[in-house]
Specification:
The chain folds into two domains: 2-62, ACT domain (Alpha-Beta Plaits, 2-Layer Sandwich); 82-338, TIM Barrel, CATH 3.20.20. Strands 7-8-9-10-11-12-13-14 form an eight-stranded parallel barrel, surrounded by five helices. A four-stranded antiparallel β-sheet has the order 2-3-1-4. The protein has a two-stranded antiparallel ribbon with strand order 5-6. The protein has helices spanning 11-23, 49-53, 107-120, 143-156, 171-174, 191-198, 214-226, 254-261, 270-274, 280-289, 316-338; strands at residues 2-5, 27-32, 37-42, 58-62, 82-85, 88-90, 96-100, 124-126, 160-164, 180-183, 204-207, 232-236, 266-268, 294-298. Helix 6 links the parallel strand 10 and strand 11 (204-207). The longest helix has 23 residues, at 316-338. The protein is built from eleven helices and 14 strands. The two termini are 36 Å apart. It is α/β, with parallel strands linked by helices. The structure holds phosphoenolpyruvate (PEP) and manganese (II) ion (MN). Manganese (II) ion is lined by residues 102, 272, 298, 308-309.
């Protein structure tokens, strides 16, 4: 059960509600986010929700039978919009492109990419400075200095910075420079990292694990929300299957499913999802038509020279063509929705 409390409820009144609910056989967790205060009540007894509703300080009560609670759509009718400021808002009704290199490689690369994105009307840039690599001998990113450089160039043009955090110990240093913390597929169930991101007020783009189920993804999102951060974006980035023809299998079924089960925005990463450059545009468009609220695209001025993931990275010309197609397709999608 999710109990939404009146905004600014006095602590004593909240404790009274908790006391009442625990008498009914429920354990409660109090959660306070930037947009609301909640009690998550866990228990198996059948209760008449009206009993809880009449407690002073209670605004609303919903029974949530999903294993995840706060991220469930059951109690929240309106989908969540994650507002990054400067007109960049990720959620239902829009389609936000987040584009940039797999790895931040240097100042010139960042400056050229930012200029390119600004000219294209793309307002959020991705780029890793802490890279999770299968081999420890591969390029592992420019670290915090690279992030500072990336952020200063991007922010000078009001471009939002989306970058991966690998470990909880990096959060404090990264915080002032980041607009969205990306949690990579390999960290999708790193619960101590999720807990710590939950204590921040920064948006989190949470990727699905390589072999993670959607229920696991939603429970990972629940970790973040339950610590107080409700600014979460879910990302389908392909899963590992028996198919070896491409890098991963982009599970587009996940998009309508997640959007039905959760109020959180959902984006698709076709670059990692398929892993082959020439298939990326079609899969990005397919993600949009599946209902995604945005996509994450790897783009590089010269993909052949990229220090990571060049084979799945679009050139500027390829990206430009795709951005235009996505715009047109988004218009068509919204028209079809209204028709
Ligand atoms: C990335 O976005 O570059 C990345 C490492 O993604 P993933 O965690 O999905 O593999
Ligand atoms: Mn990559």
């Amino acid at each position: 059960m999710i109990i939404t409390l009146q905004p600014g409820i006095p602590a004593q009144q909240r404790e009274q509600v908790q006391g009442f609910v625990s008498q009914l056989g429920f354990s409660t967790t109090a959660v306070s986010t930037q947009s609301g205060e909640y009690l998550v009540a866990i228990g198996s007894r059948e209760v008449d929700l009206r009993q809880v509703h009449q407690c002073p300080g209670v605004k609303d009560v919903h029974r949530v039978t999903d294993v995840y609670k706060l991220v469930s759509r059951t109690w929240k009718v309106k989908p969540t919009q994650v507002d990054l400021g400067d007109g960049v808002c990720i959620g239902e009704g829009s389609h936000t492109v987040i584009a940039g290199p797999c790895s931040i490689e240097g100042e010139e690369q960042v400056a050229k990419t930012v200029d390119f994105l600004v000219a294209q009307g793309v307002k959020a840039m991705r780029g890793g400075t802490f890279k999770p690599r299968s081999s420890p001998y591969s390029f592992r990113g420019l670290g915090i200095e690279g992030l500072k450089m990336f952020a200063s160039i991007a922010h000078a043009q009001k471009v939002k910075v989306v970058t991966e955090v690998l470990d909880a110990s990096q959060i404090d240093a990264m915080l002032p420079h980041v607009d969205v913390f990306q949690v990579g597929a390999r960290n999708s169930q790193n619960f101590s990292l999720l807990d710590e991101l939950g204590k921040t007020r920064k948006p989190v783009l949470l990727k699905r694990g390589l072999s993670g189920t959607l229920e696991e993804l939603l429970q990972s999102a629940e970790y973040i929300f339950s610590k107080g951060n409700d600014r979460i974006i879910l990302c389908e980035r392909g899963i590992r299957t028996y198919e070896k023809a491409y890098r991963n299998t982009l599970d587009l079924n996940a998009v309508p499913y997640l959007k039905e089960k959760s109020h959180l925005p959902v984006v698709v990463d076709p670059s990692h999802g398929v892993g082959i450059r020439r298939y990326v545009p079609n899969m990005a468009m397919a993600g949009l038509m599946a209902g995604a609220d945005g996509c994450l695209l790897e783009v590089h001025e010269s993909p052949e020279q990229a220090l990571s993931d060049g084979a799945q990275t679009l050139s500027f010309a390829e990206a430009e063509a795709l951005f235009r197609q996505l715009e047109r397709l988004h218009e068509a999608r919204e028209q079809l929705r209204l028709a």
